[in-house]
Design goal:
By secondary structure, the protein is of the alpha/beta class. Helix content is 35%, strand content 19%. It is built from 13 helices and 16 strands. The strands form four sheets. A seven-stranded mixed beta sheet has the order 3-2-1-4-9-6-12, with helices on both faces. The protein has a five-stranded mixed beta sheet with strand order 5-13-7-8-16. It has a two-stranded antiparallel ribbon with strand order 10-11. The radius of gyration is 20 Å and the shape is globular. It starts with a strand and ends with a helix. 38% of the residues are buried.
Length: 342
């Protein structure tokens, strides 16, 4: 029995972790993975061209033509060359159409540095239960991976330590606050990136991506729930080389999301309102951009070690006991088993 569930992901410079991402999600029960290669010359594209469970799609003129026919093109089109989230959102919209044509029922939209972790039911049982319910969008809260050494190869195999979603624990006690203040990797901001989760959408209901985190009906209400049956494990910048490549690839991006639209068609809605990045995720993302932009690897390494890596095991154990961090070994075990020679 299949789950009827699929995944859409946009990727660039992902390297060998693509194989782990795909193998893991197919192994736990997803039926189809839509890989949108943001670099049309990505050499990894050919590795998936003969896999019936994977649909690889290049970022070429054919894809841009397909984008232009989507319901959200008028809103996202002005930003496609400025904002990676615009391309991700359009890719998710297209994946919804492709998945529905394949007879699939659900689409989960995540990034290439993320894994879905079922926590109570199998993937098949989880989506089977959703099929008989009334929910149209299901949100999953996210945990953020924590590197425990400077260099990480395949972070899906090597990372097992995670920051617990603030929405899954009580308000901070005085002792927890004091502990955080003694931990520069976790203070003044706990998560370095987003903390509002990701979502799956029921197909065939006229919904569209609303940014990269959720979905909604363009007009009218949407039935949304927050699930306790799964979480998103986010592995951002795990390993200095991954950190360096990420911010070299992103370049000198704006201090705001949805900044400076390139054009606005006559029949398009008003451009999206720019949102300061610090209002969404604090200062880490901007500080990382600026330190890598100096092209001084050692300075960037010092920033990365101080602000990202948890090397003190005594401190780590204290944070785990406090409930702020959690050891989650299961995905690493699955990935290692999948890559183990037969």
């Amino acid at each position: 029995m299949k789950s009827g569930a699929s995944i859409a992901v946009t990727l660039r410079n992902a390297g060998a972790v693509i194989d782990s991402f795909v193998a893991y999600h197919l192994a736990i029960g997803f039926d189809q993975v839509f890989l949108f290669f943001d670099d049309e010359n990505d050499p990894a594209f050919s590795r998936f061209s003969n896999n019936d469970s994977v649909t690889p799609i290049r970022h070429d003129q054919k894809l841009r033509q397909a984008w232009s026919k989507l319901p959200i093109w008028g809103l996202m089109g002005p930003y496609i060359d400025l904002e990676v989230m615009a391309r991700q959102t359009l890719n998710a919209s297209l994946a919804m159409e492709l998945a529905e044509r394949k007879g699939l029922k659900w689409l989960l939209h995540i990034d290439i540095d993320e894994l879905f972790l079922p926590t109570q039911k199998t993937v098949k049982d989880h989506f089977a239960a959703l099929n008989v319910g009334g929910d149209e969008v299901v949100r999953y809260l996210n945990f953020e991976g924590v590197p425990e050494r400077e260099e990480i190869g395949n972070y899906f195999e090597e990372i097992t330590l995670f920051k617990v979603s603030p929405q899954m624990r009580p308000p901070l006690s005085d002792a927890q606050s004091a502990l955080l203040k003694r931990t520069p990797q976790l203070w003044p901001q706990f998560f370095n990136y987003y903390a509002n989760g990701k979502a799956s959408v029921r197909l065939g209901r006229g919904l569209q991506p609303q940014g990269v985190h959720t979905f909604a009906r363009l007009r009218g209400e949407t039935n949304v729930s927050v699930s306790s049956e799964g979480v998103i494990l986010h592995y951002p910048s795990c390993g200095f080389e991954h950190f360096w490549v990420k911010y070299r690839t992103l370049g000198r991006f704006s201090d705001r999301f949805w900044d400076r639209p390139a054009f606005v068609a006559n029949d398009a809605p008003m451009p999206l309102k720019p949102v300061p990045i610090v209002d969404c995720s604090g200062t880490y993302h901007l500080e990382a951009r600026d330190v890598v932009a100096t092209n001084d690897r050692e300075n960037a390494r010092a920033f990365y070690l101080k602000r990202t890596v948890m090397q003190d095991q005594t401190q780590t154990l204290e944070l785990i006991r406090s409930g702020l961090l959690k050891r989650i070994p299961q995905p690493s075990e699955v990935v290692r088993r999948l890559h183990r020679p037969a």
